[in-house]
């Protein structure tokens, strides 16, 4: 069955782990004592999650999930967006659903009614504003091919996937189905590599995806270097160039590189007076970039929009925007479009 | 049974409504459309709470409750503190318990195992950084005299009560018991008037308390003016002076007035570059002040400590401190102690 030629109803549909973030400041010693890897995400089971939470300081709860952050921010910018992800029918699941829906995101994946509770990500923010994450996937492991709304995926210009989903066999199959559906409908597949350790866990498959179904790849420098097993960003560029229509490598306060088969654009960052919490920087970058793409912008303004959205989110605690992203993006792109 | 002369184990024991705050930016129109009074707290039932939440934007969940905010902040400053309040045995109740316990607060009031869910306060923050609150009291209405741990109250230098508890008949009896216990043990009773509308609901009783069992009264200017039915702060001072050992009137960016039977001290505010969210300003002021009192400080440094703690909390979203309060207080009191 082909959907090619059917009308586009959404700019972006995201598929990801539906997670509530539990953010707390922490010292380096806490990170080390729990065997976490600073700046990265470690998967933990419920027993470890409960024990770690009991030892954490007071926290703030904010709906999170890498892809959901991107989708919520794209909605804030004005994109027409939808989300597919799995929560349980508990208080945290209601909070997650509320926060996405009220951001203007179409989200109707049914909650699981038994089994594990809604996923939590314990986000430990060290004084250097780095975030170290320990994720209990909970209800996310219930996401499967039956949750992929084929009509929805076919109706969106871009399907945006998070690499983290590769940690679960059923979700992996769901993503493969979604990619096939998107391409049959003439849509683009975008994906983020999510985390250097996630890349290490799935390097062979991720390389296959990059050479195959992925049209637009988002990665930060560490993730991209891990993917290609090199230690220099220009080696990454050389090896990835041409494998996808677009490769975007984000580089923190050094801005980003936008790589097409024919060109490489170096785009500067957007200045932030003080970095409070880097949680969500990559997620928001992807939001700004995809928003620009869906608007038909050139690549450099897309990357500037990404940088502006990322700058907003790292200037406060939490991974969802608090200020008017649209205005910040307009300022950042200035006269460029 | 008298506890007078028994050793002090805590500096402060707080009794209040155990509430999880659900914070969201909102426009004035939303406040008006829902019949809320800007800057104040309105009590709502579960049906209204659910309907209002459905229409609210994306939110952040933070443990709150006026008195619990004070107690958590006092713990952060180094006071030995305990809390008495009622949550349900649900996910939000666990979050509330975690956040207080991990802040170093002794908290062992048993959760309710049936009946309403843990209380939520929908906090709508308008662009002028004012907070308007709609509270569903949920499990808080289960708090009763049986929850007052007599030994605990008798073991603390100060018992700190929130005026909001006066909205519930059983909690009111619990507070009267706590005041009697505290005085029999030779301790001091401190109370906050909480909210101008709360004062209006209970003016006669609050006046009686001020003239009677309350030793230390915290009120912002509006609350104090409402209590005495005058419209000028110096009239408030004149009428309240001598009724309690100490009356502290907070005045936002005008600082505070500390009123003893013999003197009035005007104490300046602590400067904040940008007020982001005024939620918790009064709560944190009380924390800094009581911390200072428990340390045996003079009144002016106590008020400066309160101002420093308040300044921290209004410079970000949410009513619990994110930075090192102790250091901010040390800077604010400078050479004064």
If you had to describe this structure to a student in words, what would you say it looks like?
The structure is a homodimer of 337-residue chains. Chain A has 337 residues and is an alpha/beta fold. Chain A has a domain at 10-16 and 65-95 and 141-333: 3-Layer(aba) Sandwich (UDP-N-acetylmuramoyl-L-alanine:D-glutamate ligase). Chain A is built from 13 helices and 14 strands. At the A-B interface, helix 2, strand 4 and helix 4 of A face helix 2, strand 4 and helix 4 of B.
Strand proportion of chain A, as a percent range, falls in 15-25%
- The name of the CATH architecture of the domain at 10-16 and 65-95 and 141-333 in chain A is 3-Layer(aba) Sandwich
Would you identify the regions of chain A where 5 or more consecutive residues have pLDDT less than 50? none
Summarize model confidence as the mean pLDDT of chain A: 93
Number of strands of chain A: 14
Spell out the CATH superfamily of the domain at 10-16 and 65-95 and 141-333 in chain A. Answer: Ribokinase
Task: Characterize the biggest β-sheet of chain A.
Answer: 9 strands, mixed
Described by its quaternary structure, the protein is homodimer
Radius of gyration of chain A: 18 Å
Q: What name does CATH use for the topology of the domain at 10-16 and 65-95 and 141-333 in chain A?
A: UDP-N-acetylmuramoyl-L-alanine:D-glutamate ligase
Structural class of chain A: alpha/beta
């Amino acid at each position: 069955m082909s959907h090619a030629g059917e009308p586009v109803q959404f700019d972006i549909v995201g598929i990801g782990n539906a997670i509530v973030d539990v953010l707390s400041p922490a010292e380096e010693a806490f990170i080390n004592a729990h065997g976490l890897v600073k700046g990265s995400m470690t998967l933990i089971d419920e027993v470890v999650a409960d024990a770690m939470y009991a030892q954490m300081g007071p926290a703030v709860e904010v709906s999170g999930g890498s892809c959901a952050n991107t989708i919520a921010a794209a909605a804030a910018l004005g994109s027409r967006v939808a989300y597919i992800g799995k929560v349980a029918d508990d208080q945290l699941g209601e909070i997650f659903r509320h926060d996405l829906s009220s951001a203007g995101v179409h989200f109707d994946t049914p909650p699981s009614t038994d089994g594990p509770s809604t996923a939590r990500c314990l986000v430990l923010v060290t004084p250097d504003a780095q975030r170290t994450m320990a994720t209990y996937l909970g209800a996310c492991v219930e996401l499967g091919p039956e949750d992929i709304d084929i009509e929805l995926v076919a109706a969106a210009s871009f399907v945006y996937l998070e690499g983290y989903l590769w940690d679960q066999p059923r979700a992996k199959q769901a993503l493969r189905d979604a990619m096939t559906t998107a391409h049959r409908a003439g849509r683009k597949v975008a994906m983020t590599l999510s985390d250097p350790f996630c890349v290490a866990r799935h390097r062979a498959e991720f390389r296959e995806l990059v050479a195959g179904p992925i049209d637009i790849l988002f990665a930060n420098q560490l993730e991209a270097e891990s993917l290609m097993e090199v230690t220099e960003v220009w080696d990454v560029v050389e090896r990835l160039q041409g494998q996808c229509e677009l490769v975007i490598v984000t580089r923190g306060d050094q801005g980003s590189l936008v790589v097409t088969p024919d060109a490489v654009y170096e785009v500067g960052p957007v200045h932030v007076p003080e970095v409070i919490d880097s949680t969500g920087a990559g997620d928001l970058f992807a939001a700004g970039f995809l928003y620009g793409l869906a608007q038909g912008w050139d690549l450099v303004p897309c990357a500037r929009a990404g940088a502006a959205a990322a700058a907003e989110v790292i200037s406060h605690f939490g991974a969802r925007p608090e200020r008017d992203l649209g205005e910040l993006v307009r300022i950042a792109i200035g006269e460029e479009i």
